[in-house]
Amino acid sequence: MTLDLDFVRAQFPAFAQPALQGQAFFENAGGSYPCRQVVDRLTRFYTERKVQPYAPFEVSRLAGEEMDEAQTRLAAILGVDTDELSFGPSTSQNTYVLSQAFRQWMSPGEAIVVTNQDHEANSGCWRRLQADGIEIREWRIDPGTGHLNPEDLEPLLDERVRLVCFPHCSNVIGEINPVTEITAIAHAAGAFVCVDGVSYAPHGLPNVGQMGPDIYLFSAYKTYGPHQGLMVMRRALAEMLPNQAHYFNADTLFKRFTPAGPDHAQVAASAGMADYIDLLHDHHGGPGGSGADRAGFVHDLMREQEVTLLQPVLDALADRNDLRLIGPSDAVDRAPTVAVALNRPAEPVAAELAGHGIMACGGDFYAVRPLDALGVSPERGVLRLSFVHYTSRAEIDQLLEALDAVL
User: Which CATH class is domain 5-34+302-406?
Assistant: First the structure.
């Protein structure tokens, strides 16, 4: 089954906006367009439900039900129990709160493994725990390729390691890391696992329950939704860590690591992401089954579309001698988040591409550590070209023509 791109693009209001005609969007790694289902739910909540939820009057009851629907349906898609999924203001904030729980739970001399492949959100907050006596061990990428080798993790593990943190894929390297394999290695050593899925989830929501990590985080505003951070925390770990919320919420699993109250409207609107996945599943004649099964079918549709469009981009970039392609050159091994190091600062190049209708960015993208490790100056940065399943072949051609003109 091939993705019906016309049907897909009809679900995104942005593609019908006159101001965006002729503009090809290649900064999806920074945030995707929202789908119509999310926009409609957000509009309805603000116009019809914008009261404190869970009160006994009708409009409040409906508001609470919409919030509960988002949590229930998205947890099912992710293959976890409903109360193992929580919402917060952002993934960076969720990870920071989580690190404070580990700071209280761990003892001086115990260790956390981090990588230098990560976006800073899943690295910096853990590294700061070193000030409290927690040992930080760095799992390092290959400085030539950016590859994170699972074999290099095992020597870092012993009985003192409590947590291993790594990305599902890097926001500049793009290579998809084998989460299930790495999780098994860490669990065998007695460590918990925290996966930053922010750069992977836009390409198909994963079955977290099947993959096995203890924590999985991603951002709804990069998965066609509102500006929320979603965090899966499996029960065994969530009940073990100290509560970070109001004391009277300590017994509610999905509230333990969200100190502030939720954004009611955005949580409710997140159910639109489940609506969109179900719509694609049904339109393409998916096999039915559980929420995770349906999402898995859609995930594969999205990936097939992306891989087909990505390979020509990688081939065109690999043929050039005026840039360095970061990460794998085989589309099957990576997400369509493509960073290239140039012989000049990347930000002005992105500005030149804008004149050709290409919306992209240059910079370090909070990935200073991996760029340093790769020998790329963060000050010069990289040009990042990122797309998702709703990108068309015509937009890919527009990108390649613009790169030829600018470079």
Answer: alpha beta
Q: Is beta strand 161-167 parallel, antiparallel or unpaired with respect to 192-196?
A: parallel
Q: pLDDT at position 229, please?
A: 97
Does residue 1 have a pLDDT over 90? no
CA proximity to 237, closest of 251, 217, 253: 253
CATH number of 42-274: 3.40.640.10
Contacts of 84 (CB under 8 A, 6+ apart): 75, 232, 233, 234, 235, 238, 253, 254
* Cβ(369)–Cβ(120) below 8 Å: yes
pLDDT at 260: 87
Query: How far is residue 162's CA from residue 158's CA, in Å, rounded to a whole number?
Result: 9
- What contacts 121, CB < 8 A, 6 or more positions away? 91, 92, 95, 196, 198, 366
- Classify residue 223 as exposed, middle or buried by CB count within 10 Å of its CB (0-12, 13-18, 19+): buried
- The sign one gets for the Cα dihedral 219, 306, 139, 370 is negative
Confidence of residue 108 (pLDDT cuts 50, 70, 90): very high
Give me the pLDDT at residue 147, please: 98
Taking only the tens place, the pLDDT of each residue in 165-189 is 999 999 999 999 999 999 999 999 9
DSSP state of 136: E
Q: What does the DSSP 8-state code read for residue 34?
A: P
What is the pTM (predicted TM-score) of this model? 0.97
Q: How far is CA 332 from the centre of its chain?
A: 18
* Domain boundaries defined on the chain: 5-34+302-406, 42-274
DSSP string over 79-126: TS-GGGEEEES-HHHHHHHHHHHHHHHS-TT-EEEEESSS-GGGTHHH
Concatenating the DSSP letter of every residue in 317-328 gives HHT-SSEEE-S-
SS3 category, 334: strand
Query: Is 141 strand, coil or helix?
Result: coil
